[in-house]
Amino acid sequence: MAGNTFGTLFRLTTFGESHGNAIGGIIDGCPAGIALNISDIQSELDRRRPGQSSLTTPRKEHDTVEWLSGVFEGITTGAPIGFLLRNEDSNSGDYDHLKSAFRPSHADYTYTAKYGHRDHRGGGRSSARETACRVAAGAIARQLLAVEGIDVSAYVERVENTDVSFPPRYFDRSEIDISPTRCPDPIAAKSMAAIIEAARIDGDTVGGTIALVGRGIPVGLGEPVFDKFQAVLAHALWRVPAVKSMEIGSGLHGTTMRGTAHNDPIRANEGGKLYTVTNHSGGVQGGITNGENLIVRLGFKPVSTLMRPQESVSTSSESITLEGKGRHDPCVLPRAVPIVEAMTLLVLADHWLINRVAKLP
After folding, report:
1. Contact by Cβ (8 Å): 210, 156
2. Is residue 18 a part of any domain in this protein?
3. Pairing mode, if any, of strands 11-16 and 319-322?
4. For the chain, what is the domain count?
5. Which pLDDT band holds residue 47 (cuts at 50, 70, 90)?
6. 255 by DSSP, 3-state: which?
């Protein structure tokens, strides 16, 4: 199976399935000499892990990282960083009924058609369980980028038809995590929690959007023409399960504007540093970061697994009624926040390293 490695210089390869013995990853290209805060990495994983609130799946996974290589006495050595997260609460029997059935809107049919054989337990490799590996790697990328003052912050912007009362902006994690919805707007967060809980009780699911803002990003990241920054970022973020749309800056709304309103005028401050008056570009122009905040909005579909009967087909093409079983999120958005941050951090770390050889001093 190809497609399990991401990045050019800062590269992540992940392995494992939802109900296998473990999942894990190998990070290659991480510079030596980074003093890692292991507890901060674990904190990132705790934000993604299941069972953290009544709004998420009750599956219990501690997601404690076992470091296998590349870190000695808390400092990166420059060698490949190998890590492992063991699966402790898989309950594979919940999926026995899927041995000969395809779930609607899942990867069951497409994986079977492509490979001829699939792991039906929780979706196997297609499960969002694999994203824990990305969060662990993204946490290391965050600590690498911190020395340059680069950071990103994501939060739940909308659930179903309820959204926040402000445009995208950077929030500290404490402001985001104060609600289990991971929405920093207290009024909207309360409504979102009620919507998610009502969907859960009804055996249904809901979707929405996540906003991400990156700050401290230097001018010059991105490699035209085929590896423009927004193209690589899209490659990363469209790898997040359940993502159905992506916008940068003004996004789709910008298509309703005229150029006179949409262009970002450039000014120089007293020190001669350039800045833009507006940020419809979302921090990227010509495929290269321009020094302004990165602004991204991602749309997520409702979770495909419903706790109610659905029409489907068996592997022998017979019509069946499929009963929802197992433990699933009624809304992926709260747990997707750290995943979105991680994938963006991986892109930033990779392109920050690449840009260091873009020109001679």
Report:
1. yes
2. yes
3. unpaired
4. 1
5. very high
6. helix
Q: Write down the pTM of the prediction.
A: 0.94
Q: What is the pLDDT of residue 117?
A: 83
Number of CB atoms found within 10 A of residue 67's CB: 16
Report yes or no on 121 lying in a domain. yes
E-strand ranges in 192-261 read: 208-215, 243-248
> Domain for residue 100, yes or no?
yes
Reduced to 3 states (helix: H, G, I; strand: E, B; else coil), residue 99 is: coil
Q: 128 and 107 in contact (C-beta within 8 Å)?
A: no
Least confident of 16-25, 64-73, 143-152: 16-25
In the block, which residue shows the tokens 């120089």? 268
Least confident of 76-85, 113-122, 301-310: 113-122
Listed residue (133, 182, 137) closest to 157, CA to CA? 182
Spatial strand order of the sheet with 66-69 comes to 5-6, 11-16, 22-28, 81-86, 66-69
* DSSP summary character for residue 90: -
**What is the distance of C-alpha 243 from the center of its chain?**
9
Asked if residue 159 has a cis previous peptide bond (ω within 30° of 0), the answer is no
Coil, strand or helix at 259: helix
Indicate the residue type of 42.
Q
Cβ pair 51, 59 in contact under 8 A? yes
Q: What local confidence, expressed as pLDDT, does residue 91 receive?
A: 66
